[in-house]
Design a protein that fits this description.
The complex is a heterodimer of chains A (115) and B (111). By secondary structure, chain A is mainly β. Chain A has strands at residues 3-7, 10-13, 19-26, 32-38, 44-52, 55-58, 64-70, 73-78, 87-94, 105-106, 110-114. In chain A, the strands form 2 sheets. In chain A, strands 2, 4, 5, 6, 9, 10 and 11 form a 7-stranded mixed beta sheet that branches. In chain A, strands 1-3-8-7 form a 4-stranded antiparallel beta sheet, with no helix packed on it. Chain B has strands spanning 3-5, 9-13, 18-25, 32-37, 44-49, 53-57, 60-65, 70-75, 84-91, 99-101, 105-110. Classes of the chains: A mainly beta (115), B mainly beta (111).
Chain lengths: 115, 111
Amino acid sequence: SQTIHQWPATLVQPVGSPLSLECTVEGTSNPNLYWYRQAAGRGLQLLFYSVGIGQISSEVPQNLSASRPQDRQFILSSKKLLLSDSGFYLCAWSVGIGGSPDTQYFGPGTRLTVL
Amino acid sequence: GQNIDQPTEMTATEGAIVQINCTYQTSGFNGLFWYQQHAGEAPTFLSYNVLDGLEEKGRFSSFLSRSKGYSYLLLKELQMKDSASYLCAVPSTSGTYKYIFGTGTRLKVLA
């Protein structure tokens, strides 16, 4: 069976500090990978998605970046955090090609507070 | 463009039936998803509709009308554990494998 891991679970960072959130998927190959952010009481905002190693699509211009160094690893980074980066960060995967429906499966999330 | 509308909040009583609506505007349609999200947790998949009609899965059913751009999630025999947010989502028309999520409906089940 497939599992998705995210860490850390919670993070408190000062403004201007760097960020690195990691997501890994087990039990599947060549998944589509996604990073979402959910602000308090708000919907899911798609930040980045990837359909293969080294391929990243950015949805929202901001001070965040994403990388996919391995097939089942997705990393969200920032060089300098802003207060507005606070939120609940969710990684998700889907089967992609051949998946019908292309259901998304979410990791447990990282709650980031920028002070 | 694409847009999804859901009521912000609903309240219902344990044992009752509740219907959570979702309306969407999209230039092309390729299915609609419902997810459940408990407070502080990740969303989990509930249902997927691509054809008109009702799909039943135990206490939860989901309905779709493509001509009306409308879906609803029907929860029967409500339990306290059904208190959660319910998100509907449709594939984006601006890219393959992208999805647009509604802001979610927060359901409170009262004893």
